[in-house]
């Protein structure tokens, strides 16, 4: 008899960050993970994660909304389905719910983790195998202070942890942002690559001015300078500048990838498992970009270890990953809810070798950081 899905739990987990993380649209002091535990009738448990940035400020799903969608609609739809058939389970979810990509990504991850554990293989084996065991991983400098960012970058370079730095800009006037980036690039010189992420904050005219100055300052890559829907503007910027333009918010899955390719809108695609509704959706989007000669980049929604390692299994299968990854989310967290935190060494994240994701939840830590546990404590006073 085939094992079925017997229960699904979605847990909100609030973890403090090591420092304030300033983006154009929000400043993060903590990160909220939605952790999914999916239990099967054969006793196997799969885990997954859905995480976004700054509540509803980055995407259309909030942590609380993700939990509600899973508890109310998605988990009941998976009740008693064949736990070994991930594609059929995902078709079922697409029938009962439109969108809700982040929530679906967490469930697909948990199904894949469970099935890989059942077969006794790493998750990446289910995807056809890894073409690389390590992923170059950058670090985002986003303290909001130029001198502090330079110190942070120097320390991480000396530790050989990161040699590419992404700077979050778009909060201040264009000239202030350019001065901030140019100072950091001057300090680091050829020892590090510097990229910027504007998170849609500029209009096209600001972008034209800003990108020209950033290009002259030696910046290597410009991420999502203008709003996601302004594809024609993105195409004009991509045609105008030599420095590559990367689409992030503009590309969720393969359907966006097709439109971006058709319009010549971007030189690079930022792939994220949450945006694409899961690992297979990410591979579809990657295939569109790759076939069109668009360079690929392994993006993050600043997930904790479970989501970051799920993405790592996916990105390790891509033949082309020209711009490496930004899977540093676990390093931004002061503490975590897993037994073993991921390994970052020699400027790269190392794929765990255990079965499934290769990640085990630390139940004590989970009990400590889960939001409902904290509510009980406060309510009991
Ligand atoms: C984004 O927009 O790319 C990735 C790194 C980081 O610091 O924020 C994220 C979100
Ligand atoms: Mg981005």
Automatic annotation (TrEMBL):
SMART domains: MR_MLE (SM00922). PROSITE patterns: MR_MLE_1, MR_MLE_2. InterPro entries: Chloromuconate_cycloisomerase (IPR013370), Enolase-like_C_sf (IPR036849), Enolase-like_N (IPR029017), Enolase_C-like (IPR029065), Mandel_Rmase/mucon_lact_enz_CS (IPR018110), Mandelate_racemase_C (IPR013342), Mandelate_racemase_N_dom (IPR013341). One of its GO terms (biological process) is peptide metabolic process. Pathway: Aromatic compound metabolism. The lineage of its organism: Bacteria, Pseudomonadati, Pseudomonadota, Betaproteobacteria, Burkholderiales. Its cofactor is Mn(2+). The active site is at 168 (proton acceptor), 326 (proton donor). It comes from the Bacteria. This is Muconate cycloisomerase 1. It comes from Pandoraea terrigena. Pfam families: MR_MLE_C (PF13378), MR_MLE_N (PF02746).
